[in-house]
Amino acid sequence: MRSYFYLGLNFALVLLSLRLHDLARVWMARRCGDALAADRQRSAENPFARVDWIGSVLLPAFLLWRHVPALGWTRPLEPDPDKLRRPRRDGLRIALAGPAAGLLLALAGIGLARGLNSAGWMASPLLLQVLPAFCLNNACLAVFNLLPIPPLAGAAAAELFLDGDALSAYEDVKPYGFILILAGVFFNFFDFVTQPVSRLVQALIGL
Q: Cα–Cα distance between 155 and 175 in angstroms, integer?
């Protein structure tokens, strides 16, 4: 029963982290001139329009159930280039705001864990289970989202620099990006992300 409690708590924290990733992009879009970027993708009839059920719910839950770091993504934000002051630069900033938020959350968690450990307050089973997992999941989410695979942030950033045949090829592949990701998860392809990130986070926490 306790393991299910920790699983549910970790899942709730991953959902919160993904929500903060999304809010970071919305905040950056507003700073860059498009204050309504997120509102255009919401509707009164569908308040969950900004939720990607595969990337934000099903995939993270499945990976946590397997006791491996969570991977996932939020629904891509589509700013209006006409509203951005410098479309390519601002589009890049918006795309990378989510992974940047994940790295900041991971670093904040690592700092908190080290501080609590130095004070002798990390003996709590709850903290020992949840805080390192929070740091690890956010670090993995941040690095994973930098990969140039649609619908991840890395692909949105790369798309800004494509044109001609390269852009056409990208548009052809874009609808199937999530299938490539799911196949990569099934065949453990993304271990090249999660394993070094896990070792780095554990070394930084120092537990």
A: 12
Neighbours of 200 (CB within 10 A): 15
Whole-number Å distance between alpha carbons of 28 and 176: 27
- What count of other Cβ atoms lies within 10 Å of the Cβ of residue 117? 17
pLDDT at 44: 47
pTM of the model: 0.92
Burial 69-93 (b: 16+ CB within 10 A, else e): bbbbbbbbbebeeeebeebeebbbb
Residues 6+ apart with CB under 8 A from 115: none
Residue ranges, the chain, pLDDT below 70: 1-2, 42-50, 207
Q: How buried is 129 (Cβ within 10 angstroms: 0-12 exposed, 13-18 middle, 19+ buried)?
A: middle
Q: Which residues of 161-172 are buried (b: 16+ CB within 10 A; e: fewer)?
A: eeeeeeeeebee
